[in-house]
Amino acid sequence: MLLYKIEDFNPNYRQEAFDGDDIKGLELYAGNTNDKIGTIDTVLVDETGRFRYFVVETGSGMFGKKVLLPVALSRVDINAQRIYATSLRSKDQLENLPRYEHGMVIDYDYEEQVRGNYRTPTVEASVPVEASLPLDAPSRTYKTVETSPVAKAPVPVPKAQPVSPPARKADFDRDSYTYDREPELYQMNEQDHQKLRLYEERLVAGKTRRKTGEVAIGKRVETEQARVQVPVEKERVIIERVASENTGTPVTPDTAFQQQEMARLEVYEETADIKKQAFVREEVQIRKEVEQETVEATDTIRREELDIKKEGISDANRR
Questions:
Q1: pTM of the prediction?
Q2: Which CATH number is 36's domain given?
């Protein structure tokens, strides 16, 4: 059974499992007391993503020690940012647990060492016995693995000190063991660990600006034939013969018959000088106006309600 740190198994665990909260860093308290015994370093999950162990940091710096706590032996209170180790009564109980290090291989033998410290003995096995008791003394409910190097190591016990009775053979081994065999260690109590949130859908009105068309306004040049009338003047010479008042009057020979005598008149005329010139004809103003209207939409929404099923609980026990 492979185990993974939750951040390695699912980097988005905060959003998917805790709605943005982070279980890492929560403080661990003994039982239901205010006696802090450690801090959650991370969570170990199996290949299906189910929680199996909390990794507990029991100290800081060189004096710190990481140990494993099966998830069913705790109560998670996300709202209070706390975890309560319901199976522990003091920090001293953590000292008997094997040390956990990141990157180490967690095999069946190591987990049996961990489970052996948390398993609850039977009533008759919880009675203290002397170290000199025979081997057929009352036994525990579960067996601590015999192949564990820690389990084989000799533990010095004072002669007069009480010791736990030997464990009887369990109905599983390294090949047949599954976490479902010990729900008291690995089956999380949903009532103690989950926040029940009721959701409902609402119609949220929003507006999206989208392009519906385009108006292009430009200018074009049109041509046409234009006519213009310009009055012009032309000069002409008119020669008229009229009777002179001096007709029959003698003149001196010096004034008559002179060939050099000549009359000169300059004649002018006007011509039309046509040219083109641009003038402002009119102005066009372009603007946009915003018109408002109300759009109504309908849709089907859902809402969650509590569905309480009671078994063996009378109305007198309701609170």
A1: 0.48
A2: 3.90.50.10
